[in-house]
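Help needed: design a sequence for this.
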């Protein structure tokens, strides 16, 4: 009888311990995590090690415990919920990689550093890595500004590959055929669009400006596009270009070098690329900014008319004492 009592006591203790363990696990499994409103956790590729100071589990200890207990793996990414959830719900999402995408704005800018900086605010890759990946001659012209949905854990190579895929989709058969009919490559269209956008901030005027540049190219005339000089000099703030500027030694100087420059002088808006593809057909060969502050240009077929327009612009600069 004594042995039966001992065994019974052991069984009771074992059941109690098992029940306590089960209760603890059940409590952990269903523990509510997260605030009342929408919240997100970002797990970087370098935040998967429990021994790391950047370990994500310090933010969601219950989910981290469940993953460790079940022997699950951890997938980098951005995980969002609209309010509190049971710990096992977010733990399972992290383990299976059921992550959320981010809206990533790829802006149209003059400098790749600006574009990389904007992208880096929405993905894991830092701006320096993005500049290194994107500032490649074969890639720059492919960047089509837009808002894309990307996974937050994307590195620089992921972003570059995504932008190439988006470029291939944007340059559909219709656009490529139009460029071909204009005797231009897609890269040349983008290059011209970058010049057109710097020449005029008025999108309604862009097709006419594009048509003028195309007329000059067809006639074998130098493009003589002032924005290419500013790019070659490296100073976009110049308001008055001088004769010495036209002699700057650069492949982007279209006052010296025939044809289009070797690549875009900025990343243009898609609307300006389409403006080139839908360039206005006319006979204009010359243009000069109007001195009325409208942002419009005075167009001319004859050089004599252009000189008259240019003098009006120069007189305005003199009145405003703008000499550079």
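Sure. Designed sequence:
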């Amino acid at each position: 009888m004594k042995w039966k009592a001992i065994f019974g006591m052991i069984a009771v203790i074992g059941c109690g311990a098992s029940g306590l363990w089960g209760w603890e696990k059940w409590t952990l499994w269903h523990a509510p995590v997260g605030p009342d409103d929408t919240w997100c956790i970002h797990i970087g590729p370098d935040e998967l090690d429990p021994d790391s100071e950047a370990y994500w589990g310090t933010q969601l200890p219950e989910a981290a415990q469940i993953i460790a207990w079940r022997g699950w793996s951890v997938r980098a990414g951005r995980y969002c919920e609209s309010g509190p959830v049971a710990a096992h719900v977010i733990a399972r999402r992290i383990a299976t990689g059921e992550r959320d995408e981010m809206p990533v704005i790829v802006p149209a800018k003059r400098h790749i550093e600006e574009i990389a900086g904007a992208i880096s605010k929405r993905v894991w890759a830092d701006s320096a890595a993005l500049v290194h990946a994107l500032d490649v001659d074969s890639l720059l012209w492919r960047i089509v500004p837009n808002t894309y949905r990307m996974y937050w854990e994307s590195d620089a190579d992921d972003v570059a590959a995504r932008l190439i895929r988006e470029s291939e989709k944007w340059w559909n058969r219709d656009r490529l055929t139009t460029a071909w009919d204009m005797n231009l490559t897609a890269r040349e269209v983008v290059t011209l669009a970058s010049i057109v956008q710097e020449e005029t901030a008025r999108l309604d005027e862009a097709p006419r400006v594009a048509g003028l540049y195309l007329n000059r190219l067809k006639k074998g005339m130098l493009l003589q596009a002032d924005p290419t000089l500013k790019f070659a000099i490296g100073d976009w703030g110049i308001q008055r270009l001088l004769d010495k500027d036209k002699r700057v030694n650069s492949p982007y100087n279209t006052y010296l070098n025939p044809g289009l420059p070797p690549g875009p002088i900025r990343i243009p808006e898609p609307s300006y690329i389409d403006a080139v593809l839908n360039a206005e057909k006319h006979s204009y060969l010359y243009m000069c900014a109007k001195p009325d502050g409208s942002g419009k240009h005075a167009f001319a077929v004859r050089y004599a008319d252009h000189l008259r327009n240019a003098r009006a612009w120069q007189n305005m600069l003199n009145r405003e004492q703008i000499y550079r």
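Residues 101-170 form one domain.
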